[in-house]
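U., I forgot to send this yesterday:
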Amino acid sequence: SAPTSTDVAVPTSAPVDDSAIVHAVLDAWVADHPESTGSAFSAGVSRAGAEPVFAVSGERSDDPVATNDWFRLGSVTKTYTAVALLRLVDDGRLDLDVPLGTYTDDVPGADRLTTRQLLTHTSGLPDYLANPAWLESVSTDQERVWTAADIFSLVDASEVQPGAFSYSNTNYVAAGVVLEVITGLAVRDAIQMLVLEPAGLADTDMASDGQDVVDGVIDVGDGTFVGTSDLDSYRAIETSASSAGSISATPGDLLAFGRALADGELLTPDTFDDMLDTTADAPYGLGIANWELIGGSDLVGYGNYGEIPGYSAMLLVDPSTGLVLAVTGADDRAPVDALAAELQRAVLSGLAPVTHPTNSNSAPVSPDDATRELFAGIDPVGPGCSVAVASDGSVVFAEAWGQARIDAEPLTPATVFDVGSLTKQFTANAALLLEAQGRLDLDAPVSSSVGDLPSWATQVTLRQLMHHTSGIPDYVQLLLAAGADLEGSATTDDALAALRSVELDGVPGAAFEYSNSNYLLLGLAVEAAAGEGLDSFLQREIFGPLDFVGVVDPLADVDGKAQSYVRGASSWVPINSSWSQIGDGGLQTTPTDLVEWASQYWEPTVGADISAARFADVVSTEEADDEAYGAGIRISDVEGIGAVLAHTGAWEAFISTFVIAPEQQVAIAVSCNAVELAPVRNGLGLDLLRIWTGPELNGSATTTG
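Result:
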């Protein structure tokens, strides 16, 4: 929703060097993917009104990769195809919402489909990539030239049922047919006329009719496809994909296409808005996806990600910041969507990835200085971050950079943040304390503690809530889907009302599925067993004995609390929420207090009898190898560190990460008051752990400035 608070001016001169950051991000990416050493990658950034910057890595035929080398773009092609059709809309030659049969009968089910349904993947046309006949053919005949008619011959028109979103490459093969019929040109020529020439893209081409695109496409040594280890020809694959996935381009041309789209050079404002129109149920617009709505994505903005054997590419346009990103890779072992996320985070925040720097004499830089360097790009007059590190139970580093309240109050180590889901470990510990006291049975059903819920409350146990195996849908998403606004108000009663209207997403205990509902309900169970509020119980049993400064109340008027912000087009915009639920979130505290609390995981002084219970009955998250979920904390084994406990938290525009290495007795907490600074999104917590568990730790200065 549109912010209602007063905008705060953003400095017009960015205090970051985009070129240095892009190179640092790509260098770190290559270092993190040793299996792809020597493979070709590129990363490019364009800000409105500024010269684009690029970095490239790898070799081709023993020569370094250059910015004028070509990469296959895969499904990024779909955005070019959609733009070509939308230019016909602007010219009055195409209506997206009339039956497809108005233009062509060649597409199966044309009388029941529209061009809009093709572009938004709601046509019901099945994806030819999943058809066994196509898979067998391209495995045995890599030189075959496929036509749209060949692709459509794999579709049973009677089975095409439009309406629901289902990603299908067949949609964009059909979109290419519409383009050909209206323009009277081959799809390659139509895109050339409607998109490439107007945008001045001389180093972009489409392999739709069997011709070799260019000699400069990066060679791929071991790209795999449908069980083969050597792909001798792309002809069958690319002629099948055509307007769905056969464009190749140089990094510069890919970025220039995104820039032209973002700057309004290709589409009218109304048509561009139509292109970006997406919802949680329909995250794919007209040839472009809203990556904030894509599950598991850390990207913000609109774009397309593409893969074709041996290659991956991504184009991202962020209208809120005017930023355009383009990344390409010629090694399918390292898909570049994660590279795009890291690039966006780094460029927007000015925080380059950690590289464990050394001085000119190759002497190790201290952990203190390495940490400071990691955050050196924070704008001192904008929002920022606070970092605390504890070793052997003592705080050895606590510093903050940026503003708690812009133009009013700087961040300090004493600044308070809403740490969101970091609250969950405290709710879990409260439940374990009550269980140890004989006041709460975690194996009892939810209905024993929380009344007036559907029948599933008699099937789900409190322990399943703790480990996110209940199958209960997330109340936050339910409320948002019902029209609630994160900048509005919502109560626990509202959340419970939403839960009363839903069924479980799965069998209780069967699988991990993270849901804020679990800890909302567990918090209510704690309150019922304790006979007092969750915050009151924690203050008496945990916070007070540990001198922990914190309050579990998202609406509390806390002295020294930061304001959270999001970056608008030209200003920092304050974000405030009046949602009042607790248990799943709501804790207001400092990174320093968090790292001091961490020693309870290896040397408990409060609730010593529940120490083992924190790690009992853990369940695999299935989100990462060797990762499990315990009592409100993720547990994993990290190469070079060993056991790691971790959790992240986000609310309003605050974002935090908390990581613990119990074997080394090191804990690190980072909280930021702008989501763009996103310490979660590039594994910053693990990077810091590697710094602070390294040999340089001994002898480092203690700093709390």
